[in-house]
Amino acid sequence: MQTQLGKWGNSTGLRIPAEMLVHLGGDKNARVEISPLPEGGLLIRPVVQAQPCSKTPAEWAEQLRALQRSMPVGHSVVRQMRDEEL
């Protein structure tokens, strides 16, 4: 598929046909990453943004407490190393 470059302020813009926009998630305001290819040409990929965290600080704290409770209790490594030195 061919398209055309055009002036956009002090830059040059690339028009992406609607049929190709589907590959970027269909969002005309999507952020993309453009990389040069060694053999010439450009690689255009959508930028995957991290999903916002939906947990509250209290929920994080409770998850950490639950993980701590699930950890096996063993001997202190520092104490064991100190005892081995004697």
Automatic annotation (TrEMBL):
GO terms for molecular function: DNA binding. InterPro entries: SpoVT-AbrB_dom (IPR007159), SpoVT-AbrB_sf (IPR037914). Residues 6-52 form the SpoVT-AbrB domain. It comes from the Bacteria. This is SpoVT-AbrB domain-containing protein. The lineage of its organism: Bacteria, Pseudomonadati, Pseudomonadota, Betaproteobacteria, Burkholderiales.
